[in-house]
Amino acid sequence: MKTTISPSILNCNIAHLREELEKIADADVAHVDVMDNHFVPNLSWGLPVAEAVVKQGILPVDAHLMIEDPDRWAPGYAEIGCHSVTFHAEAAAAPLRLARELHRLGAKAGLALRPATDIAPFVDILSEFDMILVMTVEPGFGGQEFIESMMGKVRRTREAINAAGLEVSVQVDGGVSRKTIEMAAEAGADNFVAGSAIFRAENAYEEIAALRQLAQQHVH
Ligand code: DX5
Ligand code: ZN
User: Fold this and answer.
1) CA of 57 to the centre of ligand 1 (A)
2) Nearest-CA residue for atom 4 of ligand 1
3) Helix, strand, or coil here: 117?
4) pTM
5) Residue 5 above 80 pLDDT?
6) Beta strands at 30-35 and 4-7: parallel, antiparallel or unpaired
7) Of 13, 2, 62, 1, nearest to 33 (Cα)?
8) Active site residue 26
């Protein structure tokens, strides 16, 4: 599969949105973290900021909704032109219906799993999604430490996708850096979200290139 590098703009300087997006223009998508202070103990931003990122037209937007009631809110992110919309399995009342609604609105659909949520209950509906997001930190904050014990879930997810003959991406999010990206790629991830590793780097372009190169050695 193609290696996808998805910088998270959670900790960028939002007052200089365009410049911050230009720093990551050679990545594949811009990962926009939406938090509602209910599903996670933190508040970030919502539709207007996601729409501002879409309108800059620099990168396709990958929205990660860490919110309650995604059944109500997620379609709006497809309507404003997000390339992909990922909602949490723990929060959705009807994940399959929501995935179909996102597809109908022209977006790709992603299903996210918190660290303590297993992939097993979703194996039979993998074909309804374009991406499975295996969280490698508890969602809510950037700059946390990568949870290595999630690699078993990444592996099982990739195996289930391959066994079903599907082309579904496996995304990892949280604590992804030069130190951890190879482990995730080796376990079967092909899409890598990195926030602090990229925005705290001296040179974001170089960091993206380095992450891509490390991951590509393991993504097949
Ligand atoms: C965490 C967010 C992540 C986060 C990644 O809840 O979903 O996208 O911003 O940041 P780092 O790479 O710093 O862990
Ligand atoms: Zn995220």
Assistant:
1) 22
2) 142
3) coil
4) 0.98
5) yes
6) unpaired
7) 62
8) no
